[in-house]
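Ticket #277: bound-state structure for uridine-5'-diphosphate.
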Amino acid sequence: MDNIGHLLGHERFHFIKLDVTNYLYVEGPLDAILHFASPASPIDYLELPIQTLKVGSLGTHKALGLAKAKGARFLLASTSEVYGDPKVHPQTEDYWGNVNPIGPRGVYDEAKRFAEAMTMAYHRTHGVATRIVRIFNTYGPRMRIRDGRVVPTFLAQAIRNEDITVFGDGSQTRSFCFVSDLVDGLVRLLNSDSEGPVNIGNPREMTIYEFAETIIRITGSKSRIVKRPLPEDDPKVRRPDITLARTKLGWEPQVSLEEGISRTLDDFRKRILGGAR
Ligand code: UDP
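RESOLUTION: The complex was predicted; output attached.
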């Protein structure tokens, strides 16, 4: 985060522990609020469904109230999950999505959709300078080893030569963005005049089965691929249309999957071979 502070040209960066039930108080002026608070790994939000709904709804309300009081710019970290199991492919920002509100993933999807609606309401009603970014699958060093999302899971399995667990038949697709590219996009959006929503993600799409094979190839692992049941409402396809980010922000991902995975692998190897679980 210090890096982001430096990139933004701001010296002081506060981290606020978001308590969704109390008024948010921060002393002194604030230039910008970046609201990222939420579980984002499916295993986390399936375990914390009510907290996920509360932080996305009540927490966003509190964070917007703070932005309004301070005259601060407000950036909401939204998600490609607002598109649900999409019927438009690749996903453009004007697509309204296909979300099951009462399914297990609904707690995350609907919280983020509500957060977008609340953000736009504060913009329209109170003139808050808001930005919405829809973040697609992102990965990089320092992710938790047991995060549950596919990149850390497959990397840890490959390093340990354990079975690689592909959910379903592995024909579902995802598109993976390296973290430094995402951060570059966020900074550009925050400093731009575009309110968004803007998709930030890497448009290189592959099936999860191909991704498992890619991980085995890059790591040189002896792991085998095994199939496990597909989680409920798992989106069948996902790929960002990044025309808006390209034209409005001059943004383009720079790090290839091979390069990003190798950099993540170095970090995972060090930690796992050092005994981390
Ligand atoms: N996935 C998988 N094996 C795993 C973890 C995830 O096959 O051990 C699949 C999951 O079913 C989904 C894709 O990989 O189709 C991406 O899952 P992730 O949890 O990273 O996030 P999502 O994109 O679903 O939000």
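RESOLUTION NOTES: The beta strands are 32-35, 73-79, 130-135, 138-139, 164-167, 173-175, 177-178, 198-200, 205-207, 225-228.
TICKET STATUS: resolved
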